[in-house]
Amino acid sequence: MTTPSELLAAADTLRGWALDERLKQTVMAHPVLAGIAAKIARRYTAGPRADDALRLLELNAARGHRGSIECVGESVRDADVASEETEEIIGMIRQLVAAGGTATISFDLSHVGSVVSSELGLENGLRIAQAARDAGTSVMISAEGSDRADLVLGIWEQISYDFPETGVTLQARLHRTGADLERVMRRSGPVRIVKGAFLESAAVAHARDSAPMYGAYRAMARRLVGAGHRVNIATHDAALIGDLRAELGGDLRAEHVEFEMLQGLGTTLLDALRHDGLITREYIVYGPEWWLYVLNRIAEHPERAITALADLRQA
């Protein structure tokens, strides 16, 4: 029988693999290994193209859920590739408009060049924010590892000068997040709160699913909901959601509050929240650069590795 410490060790191993760019390159360059990995990824992504995401967006809208779309990718270290990826995201926004859909646009700043230079990340982030505004929607900046937190927040602040509707994601696990929350609440953009999926040391982060992490998450939700600040409560944790509903009650029905969940991790809880009259959103991911995203999803619950093996058998 697997012990909790063994599950934690497995999760940390998966998070380490998620950040291992050399391992990613090795697997994706091998036809057989790449094919196996792609089969596992299908559960967590809409598919390789924007059309795949738009089809899923329409299905989710029919169930009453708002949508957010991400062309998944991170850690681009070539300026030309970053520009190409930016064009892909802008093209997806145009397709969204042509299809008559509505969704917020999420992306990692490192996907569009921030690790090449902060100037490039800002330039491409502004282009995406403008395309989103032209389409009648807005962007949500995703969280990255703690070593990039200052970079992400700095670029987000610069984008939000011209595009105050731009949102940002904060991780409850990080010790620094309490101060970061007060910083981002000086702007009007929505705040997405997540537990935090990255491999982090005890020096910078609470242990995942620990009492201090849950306490930090609930405190963030209380602060944002109580202040009337737009908030996306992003979690699949039914117990955590139950705690928030017990504590905050009808305040969670306010227009500035949403519950957000990821595609591929089940819809029962999200559908139940929508049935209860709460605002809900499903986060849709597409594209070929899913490595970090998918491994982090499996790492959140290492038991999903068994599901991955079942997916291989059925594919």
UniProtKB/TrEMBL annotation:
It comes from the Bacteria. Residues 60-288 form the Proline dehydrogenase domain. SUPFAM superfamilies: FAD-linked oxidoreductase. One of its GO terms (molecular function) is proline dehydrogenase activity. GO terms for biological process: L-proline catabolic process. Keywords: Oxidoreductase. This is L-proline dehydrogenase. It holds the Pfam family Pro_dh. It comes from Microbacterium azadirachtae.
